[in-house]
Amino acid sequence: MAKKFYVVWQGRETGIFTTWDQTKKLVDKFPGARYKSFPSQAEAEAAFGKGATSTLARKTSPKPASTLKKASAPENTTKYDVEIYTDGGCEPNPGKAGSGIAVYRNGELSELWYGLYNAFGTNNTAELNALHQALLIAQDNLKQGKSVHILSDSQYSINCITNWAYGWKQKGWKRKTAGDIKNLEIIQISHAIYEEIKEKLQISHVAAHVGIEGNELADRMSIYAIDRKDTQFCRYPEPIELASILSLRAG
């Protein structure tokens, strides 16, 4: 049987997946789920980028690349009380690393966070640190009865917390093959939070550097953390001047 690639635009997690069993768990009984299979990875990536509305309706409506988009994910019209964009940066990789977050409340930019500087970090560690902080913010807001959507451009960090951790945990936090699990401590801590709130939480993969405002801001914050060398996770001071933030060095 030829291998298929499954695109999930709306589900418990969004992105491109390689098995129907995994995909079914993400879309089964999920209100408004939107997904489709493709015969090649290239077609799946193109369709994910175009969005569900464009692909499923077989029509295109390209947007200028220079226009910042506030959409949480391609063509996702679902509204959330809180949207949290995460990103990690590392210069070089491995090297100086930092994490960043952009938080939107009711569709409006609310706060920016940066920090967790590590002079001997990696991009994956920085991404996981950012996702961990986002999960903490999500946990607090879910307790207040708010709906929350986390958006990360790192498939690795999403898979570590929401997918691979289950298999590792069953094996006593060991891999199938020889070798230790990298970044195990932050994965375990983050997975424990995810397990507590996953039924109410939406986590999605979002494309990096395609003009999505929240992703661009989280990117700037991760590099700002490297420049500032802040080891704590700090809130960026207000007032937030969007143009000024976006003009900062990108990762």
From TrEMBL:
GO terms for biological process: DNA replication, removal of RNA primer. Its cofactor is Mg(2+). Keywords: Endonuclease, Hydrolase, Magnesium, Metal-binding, Nuclease. SUPFAM superfamilies: L9 N-domain-like (SSF55658), Ribonuclease H-like (SSF53098). Its EC number is 3.1.26.4. It holds the Pfam family RNase_H. Monomer. Endonuclease that specifically degrades the RNA of RNA-DNA hybrids. PANTHER family: RIBONUCLEASE H1. This is Ribonuclease H. It comes from Shewanella sediminis (strain HAW-EB3). The lineage of its organism: Bacteria, Pseudomonadati, Pseudomonadota, Gammaproteobacteria, Alteromonadales.
